[in-house]
Design a protein that fits this description.
With 161 residues, this protein is of the alpha+beta class. The chain is built from three helices and eight strands. The relative contact order is 0.10.
């Protein structure tokens, strides 16, 4: 598969595109502003959650553009955005678990499973009182949902095998 990249004033201005895509976009022929591109690198994996993979396009001695990957530290703004996104995802997960716990508690009530109702009320209490303090340095521990241990006929946070 052949690749091309758009170049203006000897600088790339977009990401690479396949020849097939360019032929569809430009049925009369690929414009001269697109130069040959060859994938040679692969994306690097950051060492920490506050680093990012960055790609630069470099023209080699044969006149073909290549991708060159590096690892960079995130800016303070990028770090804060990542922390915010993680926090929102965790809060949404806890809210979802709380809704599920309330439904399960109602189901236990309908089934007259009094020990189950009590266990689910405790579970709901853990979720309602849970607070996200920080996403650093590790991912926060979210309260577990209950499971029905059918062998012992009781609701537990985890089932021993």
């Amino acid at each position: 598969m052949k690749w091309f990249i758009e170049v203006e004033n000897r600088k790339t201005i977009r990401h690479p595109a396949t020849e097939d895509n360019l032929k569809q976009a430009f049925p009369d022929g690929i414009p001269d502003r697109f130069e040959p591109f060859e994938r040679i690198g692969s994306q690097l994996v950051p060492d920490t959650e506050f680093q990012k993979s960055v790609v630069n396009y470099v023209k080699n001695e044969h006149g073909i553009w290549n991708d060159v990957w590096s690892i960079e530290d995130m800016t303070e703004e990028e770090k804060q955005q990542k922390i915010y996104e993680i926090s929102e995802n965790v809060k949404a997960l806890v809210a979802s678990r709380l809704r599920f716990a309330k439904v399960m508690a109602m189901q236990c009530t309908a089934d007259s499973d009094l020990s189950g109702v009590q266990k689910w009320e405790e579970c709901i209490s853990k979720h309602e009182s849970w607070q996200l303090v920080s996403v650093l340095p590790t991912f926060p521990q979210i309260p577990l949902l209950l499971k029905k241990d059918i062998q012992n006929n009781e609701w537990v946070e985890s089932i021993e095998v």
